[in-house]
Amino acid sequence: MAVDTDAEPAPPDAEGAWVSLFSGGKDSSFALYRGLERGLDVERLLTVHPDGDSYMYHVPATRLAALAAESVGIDHVDVHPENLGGDAGHDSGSRGDAEVEPLERALRDLDEAVDVAGVTAGAVESEYQTSRIRALCDRLGIALYAPVWRRDPWTVAEEMIDAGFDTRVVQVAAAGLDASWLGRPLDRAALADLRDLNERYGVHPLGEGGEFETLVVDGPHMDRRVDIEWEREWEGTRGRLRITDARLD
User: Over the stretch 172-227, which tens digit does the pLDDT of each residue have?
Assistant: First the structure.
């Protein structure tokens, strides 16, 4: 596991409006929370909604990001690209580059409206994703704040719990993660079980690589809880929550 340091990087010294790349999952939510805590002026939350599988973006339950954004109290922007990266062929590099294009267009539009200084991102260890976000920021001349990037994942998981994040597992696709994990909170008991699964199967503590996906239903940066009703859908070795209803408490 490649980890450079346990220390969280300081936000870039860039004044102005910030945009949080926001899926509603734990990593992007934690990056937003840390940015707000460190004084970044976050004026927009931006969610890209893939219409199928994606190499670049969190996919499950992104439709609930608007509810989470309402709870946070920051204006939310939805991006619904058609045929996301579908014309790039089968090469993963070309596909990733193509998937960034609708995000870049949305940020250029926002820059005209609010003069974007930078973006926050919940990048953990994926150089594939992070290199493209960095390159995007370079093209736009804006800063990138990625407080989770290459930090010790166990430390980050503990910090999320300590901060008061109520995070639920909404999708699993890894050995050792069975249907009982769907809907489970990522609390200290879950983290202890993940340590065992990490030793036995190599499961990443933050689910890096799509091993599990999450939704933050409450946290210190949110005014109201996102209450969800759901059903489990299981397909032999993987599964997800089908959200049947969602509201702010």
Answer: 999 999 999 999 999 999 999 999 999 999 999 999 988 999 999 999 999 999 99
Q: How far is CA 190 from the centre of its chain?
A: 19
Please list, in sequence order, all residues whose beta carbon lies within 8 angstroms of the beta carbon of residue 117, skipping any fewer than 6 positions away. Answer: 14, 15, 16, 17, 18, 41, 142, 143
51-75: pLDDT as tens digits: 766 666 655 677 899 999 999 999 9
CATH superfamily, with its number, for domain 17-145: HUPs (3.40.50.620)
Q: Write 95-100 long-range contacts (CB < 8 A, 24+).
A: 95/55, 96/55, 96/56, 96/128, 96/129, 96/132, 97/132, 99/50, 99/54, 99/55, 99/56, 99/57, 100/56, 100/132, 100/133, 100/135, 100/136
Domain borders along the chain are 17-145, 155-248
CA distance linking residue 141 with residue 107, whole number of Å = 11
Overall CATH class of domain 155-248? alpha beta
Bridge partner residues of 227 (DSSP): 247
Please, are residues 147 and 30 in contact by the beta-carbon 8 Å criterion? yes
Q: What is the pLDDT of residues 135-186, one digit of tens each?
A: 999 999 999 999 999 999 999 999 999 999 999 999 999 999 999 999 999 9
Q: 46: phi > 0 → left, psi -120 to 50 → alpha, else beta; which?
A: beta
DSSP secondary structure, 80-95, as one string: --SSTTTTSTT-HHHH
